[in-house]
Specification:
Elements (H helix, E strand, L loop, with lengths): L17 H54 L6 E4 L8 E4 L5 E4 L8 E7 L17 E11 L13 E9 L19 H14 L15 E6 L1 E9 L17 E2 L19 E9 L1 H7 L8 H7 L9 H14 L4 E9 L10
Antiparallel strand pairs: 1-2, 3-4, 3-9, 4-5, 5-6, 6-7, 8-10, 10-11
Helix pairs in contact: 4-5
Length: 347
C-alpha cells in the first residue's frame, strides 16, 4: 500500500483585536497618569522642601545679623558727681540709653529693642573705616504692606508680618542732645530735666517706626513675634525675673534718683531672644490683600508675651494654635551675652 503523508491543517498567525488594543492603551494611559502624578508629587515636595530650607536659611541669617548688632550694644558708663556745679554724691552715669519696651503696634507681637552700637555706619563712605563711630539701632515686628519698601511697579503688593531693623547713620545720631546744666538751676531741677530728657527718649523717633523712615527697613519677612527678655545669668537668677517681670528694661529709668536702681546705666548681662517665623506659603495663603492682620495669627498671639513668668506657656500655646490652623512655622531662640555689659550690684 502506497505511503501517504497526512495532511495537517495550518493556522494563520492572529493579530491583536481592536478590543485588545483599546485595553492595552487604557492600561498604558493609567500607568502614565500614575507615573506623572508621582513625579509631580515628588517635584512639589522637593520644591516645598527647597523653599522651606531657603526661607529658614534667610531667617537664620537675619536672626544672626540682628544678634550681631545687639551683642555690641554699649552704654559706656562712668562714675561722676550727681551735680558738676554742686557735687554731693557719685552716680553711675551714661550719655547713652538701652530700651526694651512692649511692641507699640500690638503688644502680642513681643518687644521692641533700642540701643546704640559702634557699627561705624555713615552716609559718607569715607568715614566708614573710622572705628568707634556710634549708630542708633532698633528691632521690632510690624504688619503692613510691602509698597513702602519696594520700588514702584516692581512686584505685587504683599501684606506681611516683618522684622524691621533700624540703623541710623552716625551723623544723624541725636542721643547726645542731653540738656546742659545752667548756672541758676537748682539741683532738683537739673536732675528733673535730665530725667525728663531720658523719659522722652526723643532719639528713638527716627528708628521707631517704618512709615517714611529711611533708617528703618525690613530685615526678615514673616516674623510674627520677637520676644526680647533681659536677664541675669541662670546661676544668679533662675527665674529670670530679677531685672524685669514684663520684659521691659530702661537703663535710664530713675537713673538720677539716690540711691540708684540696680539697672541704672547698666546693660543686662544676657538677653534671651526668641523669634517666631511662619513659612512664605502660609503667609501667602493668609494674605487677603488687606491692611488688617489675619485673624488666624492674631488670635494665636492674643494676650501672649507680656509676662516673663508665662513665657514657656505662651510659646506652647502659640505653637499649638498655629499647628491647629495648619500654619507652618519655625521658632529661633538664643541666649545672647552683651559684650559691653559690666554688670555690678554696686550703687
Amino acid at each position: 500500500m502506497p505511503y501517504s503523508t497526512p495532511i495537517v491543517a495550518t493556522r494563520k498567525a492572529s493579530a491583536f483585536t481592536l478590543v485588545e488594543l483599546l485595553a492595552a492603551t487604557a492600561v498604558f494611559i493609567v500607568l502614565l497618569g500614575i507615573i506623572l502624578a508621582v513625579t509631580n508629587s515628588i517635584s512639589a515636595t522637593i520644591r516645598h522642601a527647597t523653599s522651606g530650607i531657603e526661607a529658614q536659611s534667610a531667617s537664620r541669617t537675619g536672626f544672626d545679623l540682628m544678634n550681631r548688632y545687639l551683642s555690641q550694644a554699649t552704654l559706656n558708663p562712668y562714675w561722676d558727681y550727681d551735680n558738676p556745679l554742686a557735687p554731693t554724691v557719685y552716680l553711675r552715669q551714661s550719655d547713652l540709653q538701652f530700651i526694651i519696651r512692649q511692641n507699640k503696634q500690638k503688644a502680642s507681637y513681643g518687644q521692641e529693642v533700642y540701643f546704640v552700637t559702634p557699627e561705624a555706619y555713615s552716609k559718607d563712605s569715607t568715614l566708614r573705616a573710622t572705628r568707634g563711630l556710634m549708630n542708633a539701632c532698633s528691632a521690632f515686628v510690624r504688619f503692613g504692606s510691602s509698597k513702602d519698601f519696594q520700588p514702584s511697579g516692581v512686584g505685587n503688593e504683599k501684606f506681611r508680618y516683618r522684622l524691621m531693623f533700624g540703623l541710623q547713620p552716625t551723623e544723624d545720631l541725636s542721643v547726645f542732645n542731653k540738656p546742659a546744666r545752667t548756672s541758676n538751676q537748682t539741683e532738683s531741677a537739673y536732675r528733673a530735666a535730665i530725667q525728663q530728657y531720658w523719659n522722652a527718649a526723643a532719639w528713638l523717633t527716627p528708628i521707631s517706626d517704618s512709615d517714611s523712615k529711611p533708617a528703618v527697613t525690613p530685615l526678615i519677612d514673616n516674623v510674627i513675634a520677637l520676644i526680647v527678655w533681659p536677664r541675669l545669668s541662670s546661676a544668679e537668677d533662675a527665674t529670670g525675673q530679677e531685672l524685669t517681670t514684663d520684659y521691659s528694661y530702661n537703663s535710664q529709668d530713675n537713673a538720677m534718683t539716690i540711691p540708684q536702681p540696680i539697672t541704672a546705666n547698666q546693660l543686662p548681662p544676657v538677653i534671651d531672644i526668641t523669634m517666631i517665623v511662619i513659612s512664605e506659603a502660609s503667609a501667602a495663603r493668609l494674605d487677603r490683600g488687606s491692611s488688617t492682620a489675619p485673624q488666624e495669627i492674631e488670635s494665636a498671639l492674643a494676650g501672649k508675651f507680656t509676662q516673663v513668668e508665662k513665657y514657656q506657656d505662651d510659646i506652647a500655646q502659640v505653637s499649638k494654635a498655629l499647628s491647629d490652623k495648619g500654619i507652618e512655622f519655625k521658632i529661633f531662640s538664643t541666649a545672647l551675652p552683651l559684650r559691653e555689659s559690666k554688670w555690678s550690684r554696686s550703687q
